[in-house]
Amino acid sequence: MRPMSADTHATDNRLTVVVAAFNEAESLPVLQPRLAAVLDDVAATHGLDCRVVYVDDGSTDATWSVLQALAAGDRRIALLRLSRNFGKELALTAGLDHVDQGAALILDADGQDPPELIPRFVEQWRCGYDDVFGTRIEREGEGWLKRGSAHAFYRVIGRLSKTPIPADTGDFRLLSPRALAALGRLRERHRFMKGLFGWVGFNRVAVPYHREPRVAGTSKFSYWRLWNLALEAITSFSTAPLRLATYLGLLTAMVAFGYGVWVVVKALAFGDPVQGWPTMMAVILFLGGVQLIALGLIGEYLGRLYDESKQRPLYLIDTWRPASGVSSGQV
Ligand code: UDP
Ligand code: MG
């Protein structure tokens, strides 16, 4: 867990790039040279001590050996290997927890967030912004269904959540030392990172960019995983669905009351011939369905509460190899 000493993140002339990688053996050798060139440039223009932390999120391919080879060739690289696949959000959390000085920048391993933009992020940080986030103007190499569902998702969560979550914004961002320290204090298990960044606040600015296709490999996020991520986002950052269930209940009760009055009046005026089995079935099935949905909703929240109450560590570390370093201090 992150050390909470008063001088944490005190030095702000360090920039650590955090990359979560899950089965990225093909992409990493393409990414690292690009990243290294950019970091050389940033180090020269801004006088920053640049580092990289690669987090191997329990990969089952050659990612770890590829990372070891890369680290052997560059003293700025630190390696972190998790005990199994914990998912991107927790892998990033693990990586960020291991940045104990300066700012952090989050980058995807697949080159979809171009490292060449890092200098623009750093400039904004140097201008005093705490949360510099990349906003996608365009997503190349992704089908209309993915783009459409992502578009809809950001609009829905934007309406439901009180926490500001900028639309079309991924995890590509730079966090200033104080934003990073603040994020380190949010230890919840169900982590929708974009929401957590939004919750932290401070001075925020967007850097628009074109999202490129992957350099190699395939996306790790199937539609099913994206759907689960969306559920996670909504239940972690909004209780609106619970309120919706209440309103739906109220509305149904009101309609049922009106209908009840009408049935009684009709029976008084015209007698009560027995009929209406189809209507009764329709109403019972409809109400049964609505009740099950409401129960399911409560269950979603309850399940998360249960996970939270277990107080397990967020992730477990297999290996931590600090960077051998280029200047003072250790990563
Ligand atoms: N990733 C990870 N753990 C996972 C899944 C993905 O660390 O369980 C990493 C992956 O290696 C990549 C980033 O998260 O660096 C984004 O994944 P991907 O490119 O598959 O997602 P997409 O860009 O398609 O949304
Ligand atoms: Mg990707």
From TrEMBL:
Coiled coil: none annotated. Keywords: Glycosyltransferase, Membrane, Transferase, Transmembrane, Transmembrane helix. It comes from the Bacteria. SUPFAM superfamilies: Nucleotide-diphospho-sugar transferases. Residues 16-181 form the Glycosyltransferase 2-like domain. It is found in: Membrane. The chain crosses the membrane at residues 244-265, 277-302. It is a multi-pass membrane protein. One of its GO terms (molecular function) is glycosyltransferase activity. Its EC number is 2.4.-.-. This is Glycosyltransferase. The lineage of its organism: Bacteria, Pseudomonadati, Pseudomonadota, Gammaproteobacteria, Lysobacterales.
